[in-house]
Amino acid sequence: MMGNRLCRALGASTAIGMVCAATAASAQSAVEYPQDASVGQDEQAQAEDIIVTGSRVVTNGNQSANPVTVLSTDELLRNTPTTIADALSQAPQFRGSLRPSSFVSPQSPVNAFVNLRGLSDPGTPRTLVLFDGRRVTPAIAGGQVDVNMLPNLLVKRVDIVTGGASAAYGSDAVAGVVNYILDRDFVGLKASANAGVSQRGDNGTQKIGLAAGGKFLDDRLHVMGSLEYFNSSGVGNTSDRAWLQKHCQAIQNPTYSATNSAGGPNFLFRCGVTGTDFARGGVITSGPLQGTQFLPGGATAPYRYGTLRTASTMVGGDGEWLPRGNVVAPLKTISGFGHIDYDVTDNIRLFVEGTYTRNESDLPFIYPQFSGGSAFAIRADNAFLPNSVRGQMATLGLATISVGRVGLDWGQSVGHTTQDYYRGAAGFDAKLGGDWVLSGYFDWGRALIDQNTTQMVNVANARLAADAVVNPANGQIACRSTLTNPANGCVPLNIFGEGSASQAALDYIFGEPFTHRKTEQSAAELAVRGSPFATWAGDVQLAAGFDWREISASAVADSISTSGGWLAGNQVAQPYGKYNVKEVFGEVTIHEGYVTRKEARRIEKGEAPDTGQKPARPEVTATMQTYIDLHRHAAVRAALTGHPKVALRLLVAHAIVGSHLFRVTPEPQSTRNDGVRESVETCRGEAEFDERRRAVLGLLGFSAEEATVTGGNCDGYRLAGVFLRLLDLPDRAVMDVIAIVIGEALAAGGAAVEAVGSHIGVDMAQWWQADAAFFELIRDKEVLGRIVAEVAGEAVASANAGEKSKTLKEIVADHLAGANGRAKVENWVPKWMAFPPAGYTARGGVGTVKAAALVAAARATEPDPTAPASALLPEEAEKLAA
Asked: Residue ranges of the TonB-dependent receptor plug domain (predicted)?
């Protein structure tokens, strides 16, 4: 099969790497190494050493052995101007990344974690994040780096190794490597500011940044820094969104049976889902009094159960649908970064840099819910129990009842998270002679996370407070536990009916779980790089060195959390622990050779190899070559008139590939309206043309996935190939090719469409039917009235003349569909779209009508049909007649 695109440049290299690691301490032995590498610039530009993440070695003009995607920050922020992390998350390979919108629990950090191809999670990082080729301190003990703390304004680009890079960087790079490259040479002043809000008025974002850089002391000292502020108000409770107000979710099917398919599937997706075993004011969830709910003021009423009822869910009824957490967590970030480098000599450069970032987030969490196994156990002597229920319990001999309650009136808990990140690094680069470079750095960082949740229910206190009785000593209501332990501070809680709980009781049952987490990392590396020798294919590159790092983590939490005593949001304490890794690494890159663009073209065309020898002096001059070319052209052109089938095939080949004299450009079928685009893309005519185009692509030896047959780049080699292919095809197949070529080049909205459509007799009713886009685009009330008259009759149009456009459109749509009792109208096409077209008013302005007028004018002056049908010379005509 003949391809229709030339290959670009072919290259090959072999990289041999070795890592030896010694790990001391506890749980992990991850081995990853940040390192500098380089790629060449454009083949016309001079190559320079730049950091690339695909390899440790530095070689000018050499592509990394691992696939590397390079994205400039200008390109990233042009499409997503909030943060680089948000911009990266739009790329398909980062769709599994975690952003602040991913965290809706107060126990979760509000960070941005990159995740290539969804292979990582916060506890098991498999995507290595580097800053300027160096490892940075993770934000959490799991090892994930918060990329929002990196200086967005001073990041020059992001290098992404999309293939596994663990051979070069260790186990954390199984999914790949993301390297944020610092703009080391930034000089000047840079400021940015932007703000935005969603179409629903929430998720407002504001971003302000300022960066400055300068060189001093004869350009030996370079200082730069940045300050950045980012604020996002987030998207509040998900119940604020219409799509969740319908309460749709998958629920257990109560009639499901593993042995009887008649019961239906195990899970059903239904809307109007509510909870079965709790209510705003409380509901008795079991026993003979089940289904008694408590109303404000102590009244009771039957609890109406819905359908598809299970122990926890049902559809409809009096149940509650609890508001969920935030769709997008709010976030405020303040970040500062500074970098200083100094050229001690022409061969030695020192640098030092530091970062401070603070993240703050307040995240609404849950409303108190006591249901199922956590429901309140209420005794018959409860002081707040309505007398009517107490009497029923006495009659039935019930000692206790189970009450499910949701405290929507008690208030929602809110999680508060504060993160402080500190990082410092220092290092050097020293040129040793030739292209050998010795480099080293030390990096230290600390991440602190403080989290607390307000208005969280202390379960033990809530149960003590709900068990309220009348103190026989003074007739006052008190907690049962206070009778035996007067100093316990318990305040009785009335759970029966909304608004019944006192503020003092709520203060008693509420508390604030908290945690303080600390993660530290120290890392150092010493490496040497250079070329020990060269082969015929280029320099052999070597990188070797020593790497060390130590990571420690700890977390403290409140005592109630450690025992699981909060209703939700129990924090986890972690004792101090650390591990360290010591590694020796080495990598060698040996070029096997490369193929230039010119050589790639030669291989595709099957030409003889280039020996590298200087070409011999041509045996004809340029003027003589012109003389030869013009005479041969004249002879072939004259002879071609006697072979019209050959001429036809050459014309088609030129239409496909192009010529230096002309080029056929396919009709772009462009529109800015999404509805029009979708309507055309899904119509019958487009589908049938695409099917026949695929068949023609196969005839020509092209891939069926090519978007067009035409639009070639005037390549002579391809022109010859297409022409020879057409010579082998029968006339019928060539005609099929011509039809597709002309169809692609047929200008939409032009006179050619009118001429062909009228001549062939195209019946638009066979190719089109009214769709949503058509009705959306009709805005003219007078035209709508004429269409109603055309479809439904003058009487209907007259009777509805005063109706809104929406009503008129519905009348037309009902007739076309035969719906709502209206007679169905078959094969209707608006006058504008028929062949020939016409307008509905005398106002004009219909492009198809104008084009049809041009065709009519041309047809009125067309040549005499009795004129000769060919352009043969007289002697040729006589010879043909004989």
From this structure: 64-177
Q: Give the whole-angstrom CA distance, residue 116 versus residue 69.
A: 12
**CA torsion, points 20, 24, 25, 27, in degrees to nearest 10?**
10
Tokens of 305: 């159960």
- Asked whether 266 and 387 are in contact (CB, 8 A), the reply is no
CB atoms within 10 A of CB 654: 20
Of 232, 195, 249, which Cα lies nearest the Cα of 326?
A: 232
Ordered structural domains, the chain, with CATH: 12-235 (2.170.130.10), 642-748 (no CATH)
372 backbone φψ class: left, alpha, beta (φ>0; ψ -120 to 50): left
For 834, the 3-state DSSP assignment is coil
The answer to whether residues 713 and 635 touch, using CB atoms and an 8 Å cutoff, is no
- Give the lowest-confidence range in 118-132, 488-502, 837-851: 118-132
Strand partners, 442: 426, 524
Average pLDDT over the chain, rounded to whole? 80
What ranges in 746-818 are assigned the alpha helix state H?
751-760, 772-777, 781-792, 794-799, 805-817
Q: How far apart are CA 80 and CA 237, in angstroms?
A: 24
- Spatial CA neighbour of 341 closest among 187, 456, 228: 187
Reported as type and span, the H/E element at residue 84 is helix 84-89
Read off the pLDDT of residues 369-392 as tens digits, 9 standing for 90 and up: 999 889 999 999 999 999 999 999
**What's the maximum distance between 2 C-alpha atoms anywhere in the chain?**
137
Q: List residues bridging with 438 in a β-sheet.
A: 430, 528
| CB contact at 8 A, 850 and 857 | no
Sign of the alpha-carbon torsion through 494, 500, 502, 506? positive
Q: For 568-580, how does the pLDDT look when each residue is reduced to its tens digit (9 = 90+)?
A: 888 888 888 998 9
CA distance 680 to 673: 11
Question: For residues 875 and 882, what is the distance between their CA atoms, to the nearest angstrom?
Answer: 11
Q: Would the pTM count as exceeding 0.85?
A: no
In which residue are the tokens 């629920």 written? 251
The residue that leads in pLDDT, 335 or 241, is: 335
Which DSSP category does 238 fall into?
Answer: G
**Using an 8 Å Cβ cutoff, are 226 and 191 in contact?**
no
Is 327 a residue whose pLDDT tops 90?
A: no
**Is the pLDDT assigned to residue 3 strictly greater than 80?**
no
Token pair 């030390």: residue: 442
Residues in contact with 760: Cβ distance below 8 Å, sequence separation at least 6, in sequence order: none
**CA atoms of 252 and 254, how far apart (whole Å):** 6
Amino acid at 304: R
- Residues 117-146: pLDDT tens digits? 666 565 566 778 889 988 888 887 767 788
DSSP string, 320-332: ------EEE--EE
Q: How far is CA 785 from CA 769, 773, 838, in A?
A: 19, 19, 16
Q: Which helix (H) or strand (E) holds 563?
A: none
With tokens 């007078």, the residue in question is 782
Q: Could you tell me the pLDDT band of residue 612, with boundaries at 50, 70 and 90?
A: low
Rounded Cα–Cα distance for residues 469 and 481 (Å): 9
pLDDT score of 722 = 82
Identify which of 591-595, 738-742, 772-776 has the greatest average pLDDT.
772-776
pLDDT at position 46, please? 36
Cα 720 to Cα 608: distance, rounded to the nearest angstrom: 18
Q: Are strands 400-406 and 283-284 parallel, antiparallel or unpaired?
A: antiparallel
By the 8 A CB rule, do 233 and 206 touch?
no
For the chain, helix, strand, coil in percent to 5 are 30, 30, 40
Report how far apart the first and last C-alpha atoms of the chain are (Å, whole number). Answer: 45
CB-based burial, 459-471: b 16+ in 10 Å, e otherwise: bebbbbbbbbbeb
pLDDT of residue 638: 67
